Amino acid sequence: MQYAQRGRHRIAFSLRGGEGLPPLLMIRGLGRTSRHWGRIVHELERTFRLVLLDNRGVGRSGVPLVPFTTRDMADDAAWVLDTLGVARACVLGISLGGMIAQELALGHGDRVSRLILGCTTPGRRSGKGVRPGRVLELVAPMRLPPERAIRETARLILSESFLAREPEVVDEWVEIARQVPPSRRGVLYQLLAAARHEAGDRLARIRMPTLVITGDADRLIDAENSARLAQAIPGARLAVLPGAGHDFPTEQPEATAQLISEFCLG
């Protein structure tokens, strides 16, 4: 784990893959750290120099005293690229990370060679909102101990078929939380940043090649949001993974890695 100091904020990141490979910046979602990427890292590190972030508020990164926005987190990501001396990178963001990636493409477009937006939304006004019941399922477990909260929310994040097939993934998430206990304030601030995100009226300004990916079994962020993103971003392409839930890189790492590699290198 390495660190980039941006003012008072410490941003943690790690590197995987050979130094001479093309850079791929990977931005995870709500409450997730760079360790939550799982097996897809092994698929991608053969082809890319991976830059794996802990967004502010989680993991080894600092937890600010005041709330922040997706734009703040995009500035953090750009700062990490500056720290590494990376002029441009292919950028992958999923869920909250996809909102951050949108802001990175809009505010630091010269740093993004290609953009991949996964299981995410253009924002609270222009997207299809999360149903109130789903919000409650996501937020209510925050009052529980981390292990119970992770097991409760896993049913939203992963499809039923995957949970039945590979329940050990949730055990791995619990172990990550034991080793680096999550900050409730940090996760709450991330949740507020996601709730306030709105990029719909600016998406037409994105000019780099863009791929939007979603699973058709996503119970958290409706796949319709991905269709709206692909329609709003000039020239964007939409890919739908059959049977995949919200965390499609965890459920289908090989298929996801193939999409990313073909898009970024093709």
Overview of this structure, please?
Helix 2 (70-84) crosses helix 3 (96-107). This protein has helices spanning 40-44, 70-84, 96-107, 132-139, 146-157, 160-165, 168-179, 184-196, 224-232, 248-251, 253-265; strands at residues 2-6, 9-16, 23-27, 49-54, 89-94, 112-118, 210-215, 237-241. Strands 1-2-4-3-5-6-7-8 form an 8-stranded mixed beta sheet, sandwiched between helices. It has one domain (2-265): 3-Layer(aba) Sandwich (Rossmann fold). The chain is globular, with a radius of gyration of 17 Å. The model has no long low-confidence stretch (mean pLDDT 94). The longest helix has 15 residues, at 70-84. The two termini are 30 Å apart. The protein contains 11 helices and 8 strands. By secondary structure, it is an alpha/beta fold.
Task: Report a brief summary of the structure.
The chain is α/β, with parallel strands linked by helices and 266 residues long. The chain is built from 11 helices and 8 strands.
Using the coordinates above, name the CATH class.
Answer: Alpha Beta
**Portion of residues in helices?**
40-55%
- How many alpha or pi helices? 11
Q: How many structural domains? A: 1
Largest sheet report: 8 strands, mixed
Shape: globular
Unreliable stretches (pLDDT < 50, length at least 5) are none
Give the N-to-C terminal Cα separation. 30 Å
Name the CATH architecture.
Answer: 3-Layer(aba) Sandwich
N to C succession of SSEs: EEEHEHEHEHHHHHEHEHH
Total count of strands? 8
Our Rg estimate from Cα atoms comes to 17 Å
| Mean pLDDT across all amino acids | 94
CATH structural fold name: Rossmann fold
Widest sheet: strand order? 1-2-4-3-5-6-7-8
